[in-house]
Amino acid sequence: MTSTRLEDLPHELFFIIFTYFNGVDLCLAFSNLNTRIDRLLFNVASHQSLDLTSGSVSYNAFRAYITDRYGVRSSFISSLKFDCLSLSPFGINDLFSSLMDTSIDNRLQRLTLITSEYVSVKTTEIIKFLEHMMIANKQGRGRLEHLTLTFENCNDYYAKIVTMIIQRNISFGTMILNVTKYIFKSPLNTKMYISPNETNMHIAIDSRPSLVNTVRLTLSLQYCSDLVLLLQRGVLPLIQQLNVTFERRNPHVDSRPVRFKVDEKNLLTTDTARLRKLSLRNLPMHYALQFVRFLYLTQLESLHLVDIFDNEIRCLAEFERAISIRLYNLVNLQFVLHFQFDTVLQNNEWNMWQGLDLLKNDLWQSRGWFANDYIDTDEKRFIVYTVPYALSYVRFLRNHTFIAAQQPNSVDLKTDQLLLWTCTDSNPSEVAQSLKGLSQARHLRWNFEAMVSPLVLSSSSNIDSAMRWPEMQLRSLCLLMNSQIHIEDRANIITQMLLICPRLRTLAVLSKELALCLKQKPALTHLSLDHLHLYLDMVQDMVDPVALAVIFPNISYFSTGKWYLKMDINLAHVVLDLIKVLPYLRRLRFNDCNFFYEGNIDQSADYIVEMIQNSEQL
């Protein structure tokens, strides 16, 4: 009987075997065995995507994966996503170093990096890494074409990152600078300005920025005039898709949406001849009309205008005329326009309906553009929109009126942005209906301000279907409830949300509410939850670590916040207990206290024990 060696197996059988491994395990098991198997791995694994935020691949396994002495495994990665808040500064530097190794054939094509001002790695290190990847592209050693940077806030940290990217001409084919909240400082504020002695606007910067490789760009700005700066000739010469959100705390009362006058002379110095898709969000109608009228948009095929606001409904006539005449190649048009309802009624209600008739002409309907209207009684706004009026256009929700605005069978409610839902109406059927409308959303901050619980509990299955909460696709949930609601009812709401959100990865709730929820011993185990954040006033309100580990055994990031907590013996004991019962814990943050974990967990535990023993120093 002849024996068959592993290397004697045919290619087809290897390919079948490879399908039973994830990317990391596959390369850890088979790479560097021999030249033939390495070639097969390149065919299979050179397009693998690794998401270090999903929980499917631990950081330690990934670190072992990329630090082989031949550097072969790093060249397998084509797409990578990681969260700087979940890694220590040493872990981030190791990751950057492995991807910057000039001795390997780097095949990384897509990179998603989640960051904020709280990360421990220096901003210059991130910029240095991006510069290296761009230089590698120019020299033919790199392939990075799609860069996504996600920020929690558009503040000074965001401004610093974006300004450095522009100043150093860091440019990739697709650049997406996502923001989940609001901005209060422009990234172009310190270096770009209008010279008062010049008739035409120009960029005054040490070296004229030129993002020559960027074809698709998404970012947030504070002022409409900053967009004009970026559209100057030579800055974005290849731009074809542009998505800009103008971030302000309250755009409807902001009296300074620009830092310099935006007029025809300024706009005629721009270069938008190649632009095919334009999305603008959160700006006055006056500036939206100027962009449409004076930018050179002859090749524009898709236009999205979201949360455009004005007081006068009569501007709809000019809006319709500008789009119909200037954008003759336009195929896809979607918009959401907001008008102050009281102002509209004061001027003339007849003008309101007459303005809508202008948008329902034969030309627009023949091109598939259908305008609708909706009155938001809570916000006192008259909204004009095209189908669909999707939640992807909405950031702030109030009560349940957004559900009434949905068009049946024509709305895609799936959205990856953070939705802020303030609810003062506790009607059980209304709350259940709103949850159904949000069932495909990924990130939700729910501020429940009503004084009565909306949850209807029943031991039988005869509960009215209109009041039954549906299963949701949430990945992150921040749930804050009115303290007037009995704490047992608040705990029941948390339990119910855990039951209907099986894919939840991040949860933020009041500590004493979750503590009572765990004491009730709910019959569930949340394996997907990776990050738990508790609003904590006193250490005495901390949840039981043992009960916590039963419900959420895979937590890797535990944090608290609200008020300042002094690092005393009680808190040190809590830290030690959490380390003991949560085997995957990598990072702890107690309000202003930070703990990072690398290597052996016992070393960190010994450190906490030493702090307890030296209690006189606490």
Can you put this structure into words, describing what you see?
The protein has 618 residues and is an alpha/beta fold. The protein has a domain of 102 residues. It has 21 helices and 21 strands. α19 links the parallel β18 and β19. The protein starts with 10 loop residues before the first helix and ends in a 5-residue tail after the last helix. About 6% of the residues have low confidence.
Estimate percent helicity.
25-40%
Radius of gyration, taken over Cα atoms and rounded to an integer in Å: 27 Å
> Unreliable runs, pLDDT <50, ≥5 residues?
182-207, 249-255, 597-601
How widely separated are the two ends?
72 Å
- Compute the number of strand runs: 21
Strand content: 15-25%
Main sheet attributes: strand count, strand direction, barrel closure = 12 strands, mixed
Quick overview of this protein structure:
By secondary structure, the chain is an alpha/beta fold.
